[in-house]
Design goal:
The complex is a heterodimer of chains A (396) and B (329). With 396 residues, chain A is an alpha+beta fold. Helices cover 25% and strands 24% of the residues of chain A. Chain A folds into 3 domains: 101 residues, RNA polymerase II/Efflux pump adaptor protein, barrel-sandwich hybrid domain (OB fold (Dihydrolipoamide Acetyltransferase, E2P), Beta Barrel), CATH 2.40.50; 52 residues, Dihydrolipoamide Transferase; 200 residues, Chloramphenicol Acetyltransferase, CATH 3.30.559. Chain B has a 7-stranded mixed sheet with strand order 3-2-4-5-7-6-12, sandwiched between helices. A 5-stranded mixed sheet of chain B has the order 9-11-10-13-14, sandwiched between helices. Chain B has a two-stranded antiparallel ribbon with strand order 1-8. In chain B, strand 13, helix 10 and strand 14 form a beta-alpha-beta unit. Chain B is globular, with a radius of gyration of 20 Å. The chains are: A alpha+beta (396), B alpha/beta (329).
Chain lengths: 396, 329
């Protein structure tokens, strides 16, 4: 199993596109693999005959494990097959020359079958006692083993043990194994809200003029601009002015970026993913509109490439279309901030001395306090507010 | 409290037990006139006479057999082997006679005998004279196996061994005979089968016995000063019966364990300890239990090579780092 994304630890064979006995050339797509992020093509790395499929459709195996054997039509592959059979579970880290995909490094001693979580007995007991799901704890031991200190790190200090689970009547619930994507989301978000010191800033923005601008632009023709596109553009521009919010916490240092890469949260079946609009500060609103639509489409079809959903410097999450007035979002590490955008709602407000109805939108910024202080975040948000209330600033 | 050597502590134990019970006698090579190859029996011939401090020919099997016979008829012999390497010649009497007699006689004939002498490596005694035989004897049902690390333990345990109605294999350390330690003036005994926590700590358990207790202490000092890791040192003192309770209580507290012994790794004492731990404390382990042992080769004569084969504090520190996930894996 080849690592098809930077964070991929295991992959599920969604479908085999070649059958045993087929002749394959290097570069041919052998199978579709569901990774932690997307469905990716597994390509042949050599030519020959697909002699044996080891990991069947629907099965999951760790990166580095043998999934199939490509060899000459009459080449003896019995030793490869017997090694694969000897290894634990369906497949394990053998690395013969003629494999479809070889691992950068075999996993430790092939000790874990596909999908198994490595954890010390103590870590397992503590997780059980604290009501913690081991799947969402990042292991720091050899081969990713979850050990005591990982459990301790995953538990907020002073949180009492979860109350003993109430025995539910059978049939009152359904246990569904989380998808690869769901597992990754779980892992990443626990890594965020636990260790990252969040604080939140909320402001309400008058969107009347932004709405007028949007209507005017959309009246021009082909490309439709959404409110979210306008928010992306404004945030990107504001981050250039407030570079202190366009940064990654890197433990030993803080990395400040000169350009703005906006991670845009997109809801997809059973999860979410954050495609990145790169160099958003240098793109026109129209370019952003076109690109965000294309990325969202590819995200929903699970066709994003790893480089399309990594490397963001700041995130925007918008639940306005779902009628949410305001919410707080979890930071997407190592980014230092995320803006949660609520619905645009007509409200009675005092405007120029009289009560009128205006379209208003509430936004909440989550800040990593290690990078951003209260006043810093507030000044950035003030710029965002000012620009949205006077959208001509976009072309300023 | 007086500070005396390990050899004198053993001497006191022998003397006190011989005074206490006229059935106790000492027999072995050079124990009388020469006062013991390591002077453990100094002054005993003079005090108790040649009927109770018996010099033997160089014939380990025969004097061990005489000892077993004497024990069968109610005496309490203490058989000294000049070293345990020589006791290989007498192992048939230890294993087949002493250890089996109570069982084969249907409980009628106890064999209250102590076989004692130095075990393990000294310095440059080479392949045939540098062996730790704890695991050999601990393998045998019917034998008790004791290996004290300090003068205090040596005295208290030898007294209990002599009073015990079972055959006891008592392994001393040639390099320990000069070790000094506090021993009370008043009489005391230490029950067989009780381990001793020699140093308390919360971070890792180091199980050891005999000479490796000193190795463990050196490692523990370094771990404390350099890494802030506080090791708990559990000295087994008695190998069989093994004090599983004390070991497991410590591992439950620290969640990790390193075992240090002078014997070879394969089927060693540590292997048995690991087995007990994994069954009794499985859910308390945060890492696999590691062992530091004599290298799995015959002892080289070369001084430098010899040093490389013996368990040392560096290896213990490394093993502790590993079980504590401090080795930057």
């Amino acid at each position: 199993m080849e690592a098809l994304s930077p964070t991929m630890e295991e992959g599920k064979i969604a479908a085999w596109l070649k059958r045993e006995g087929d002749t394959v050339e290097a570069g041919d797509t052998l199978a579709e693999v569901e990774t932690d992020k997307a469905v990716m093509d597994l390509q042949a790395r050599g030519h020959g005959v697909l002699r044996k499929i080891i990991v069947g459709e629907g099965a999951t195996t760790e990166v580095g494990n043998l999934v199939a054997v490509i060899a000459g039509p009459d080449e003896d592959i019995s030793h490869i097959l017997s090694e694969a059979a000897d290894a634990t579970g369906a497949a394990a880290g053998a690395e013969p020359a003629a494999l479809t995909a070889t691992a950068p490094a075999p996993t430790a001693a092939g000790e874990s079958a596909a999908g198994r979580i490595k954890a010390s007995p103590l870590a397992r007991r503590l997780a059980r006692e604290k009501g913690l799901d081991l799947a969402v704890v990042a292991g720091s031991g050899p081969g990713g083993r979850v050990v005591k200190r990982d459990i301790e790190a995953a538990l907020p200090a002073g949180v009492p043990a979860a109350p003993a689970a109430v025995e539910l009547a059978p049939g009152g619930y359904e246990d569904i194994e989380p998808s690869q994507l769901r597992k990754t989301i779980a892992k990443r978000l626990v890594q965020s809200l636990g260790p990252v010191p969040h604080f939140f800033l909320t402001t309400e923005i008058d969107m009347e003029r932004a709405a007028e601008a949007r209507d005017a632009l959309n009246a021009l023709g082909d490309t439709k601009v959404s409110f979210n596109d306008i928010v992306v553009k404004v945030v990107a521009q504001a981050l250039i002015t407030h570079r202190e919010c366009n940064a990654w916490w890197q433990d030993s240092h803080v990395r400040y970026f000169n350009d703005v890469h906006i991670s845009m949260a997109v809801a997809i079946d059973d999860g979410l993913i954050t495609p990145v609009i790169r160099n958003a500060n240098r793109k026109s609103l129209r370019e952003i509109a076109v690109e965000s639509r294309a990325l969202a489409e590819r995200a929903r079809n699970r066709k994003l490439l790893p480089e399309e959903y990594t490397g963001g410097t700041f995130s925007i999450s918008n639940l306005g279309m779902l009628g949410i007035d305001e919410f707080t979002a979890v930071i997407n590490p190592p980014e230092a901030g995320i803006l949660a955008v609520g619905a645009m709602t007509p409200k009675p407000v005092v405007h120029e001395g009289s009560v009128t109805v205006r379209r208003r939108m509430r936004v909440t910024m989550s800040c990593d306090h290690r990078v951003i202080d209260g006043a810093m975040g507030a000044r950035f948000l003030q710029t965002v507010k000012r620009m949205l209330e006077n959208p001509l600033a976009i072309v300023w | 409290m007086a500070t005396i050597t390990y050899r004198d502590a053993l001497n006191q134990a022998l003397r006190e037990e011989m005074e206490r019970d006229p059935n106790v006698f000492l027999m072995g090579e050079e124990v009388g006139v020469y006062q013991g190859a390591y002077k453990v029996s100094r002054g005993l011939l003079e005090a108790f006479g040649e009927h109770r401090v018996v010099d033997t020919p160089i014939a380990e099997l025969s004097f061990a057999g005489i000892g077993v016979g004497a024990a069968m008829v109610g005496m309490r012999p203490v058989i000294e082997f000049m070293t345990w390497n020589f006791a290989l010649l007498a192992i048939d009497q230890v294993v087949n006679s002493a250890a089996k007699m109570l069982y084969m006689s249907g409980g009628q004939i106890p064999v209250p005998i102590v076989f004692r002498g130095p075990g393990g490596a000294a310095l440059q005694l080479a392949a045939q004279h540098s062996q730790a035989f704890e695991s050999w004897f601990a393998h045998i049902p019917g034998l008790r196996v004791v290996a004290p690390a300090t003068p205090y333990d040596a005295k208290g345990l030898l007294k209990s061994a002599i009073r015990d109605d079972n055959p006891v294999v008592f392994l001393e350390g040639e390099m320990l005979y000069n070790l000094k330690g506090e021993v009370p003036e008043e009489e005391y005994t230490i029950p067989l089968g009780e381990a001793d926590v020699k140093r308390e700590g919360n971070d890792v358990t180091i199980v050891c016995h005999s000479k490796t207790v000193a190795v463990a202490h050196k490692a523990a000092d370094r771990l404390s000063s350099q890494l802030g890791v506080e090791a708990e040192i559990v000295d087994l003192r008695t190998i069989r019966p093994l004090d599983v309770e004390t070991i497991v209580a410590s591992v439950r507290k620290t969640n990790r364990c390193v075992i240090v012994e002078e014997g070879w790794p394969f089927c060693g004492v540590g292997a048995q300890v690991v087995d007990e731990i994994q069954r009794a404390a499985f859910d308390d382990l945060d890492a696999p239990v590691l062992r530091v042992t004599q290298a799995d080769v015959p002892m080289p004569y070369s001084k430098k090579l010899e040093r490389l084969t013996k368990p040392n504090p560096d290896q213990v520190v490394d093993a502790v780092k590993q079980v504590s996930y401090l080795d930057g894996n």
